[in-house]
Design brief:
By secondary structure, this protein is of the alpha+beta class. The protein has three helices and three strands, in the order αββααβ. A hairpin with a 2-residue loop joins β1 and β2. The chain is flat, with a radius of gyration of 24 Å.
Length: about 140
């Protein structure tokens, strides 16, 4: 067998081995993410129950983080287009036309909702009622 063929076969075997290793690692990562999600649900409940927001163990701080995301509040039986139109109408009424494109950019809308939420003197406009669905999410993070 020629040296070139031996080298080729060796590289093919290395590729197959690397692919197999990636598949095995993907399985391990998926299982670890599932375990982490289960523990995170428990930790969120515990943090909420105790009123704690962070804990430092072994030099690692584990803390809760609040995130707000916003999008069109689609009512039961309502089409996506109708819900999106109600959202656009509410945004125009409030002077936030810059968020409206063909569709509303949910990241920019979420940023607007976070700004309003952060301002203690400002309440959520009633024009947004039924047009924007706001989801408050908490996660456990490490720093």
């Amino acid at each position: 067998m020629s040296e070139e063929k031996v080298a080729f076969e060796s590289e093919v075997k290395a590729f197959i081995s690397a692919d197999s290793e990636i598949k095995n690692l993907d399985i391990q990562v998926k299982a670890a993410k599932q375990r982490k999600a289960e523990v995170e649900r428990w930790l969120l409940d515990h943090f909420a129950f105790t009123g704690m927001t962070q804990v430092k163990i072994d030099g690692v701080t584990v803390f809760t983080k609040r995130t707000l995301r916003a999008g069109a509040d689609r009512q039961e039986g309502e089409s996506f287009e109708d819900a999106n139109q109600r959202l656009k109408d509410a945004l125009r009424t409030m002077g936030h036309d810059h968020l409206i494109k063909e569709t509303v950019n949910s990241n920019s809308l979420s940023a607007l909702i976070r700004e309003i939420d952060a301002d203690d003197d400002q309440e959520m406009p009633t024009e947004f009622d039924g047009a924007i669905k706001i989801a408050e999410m908490f996660s456990v993070n490490i720093r």
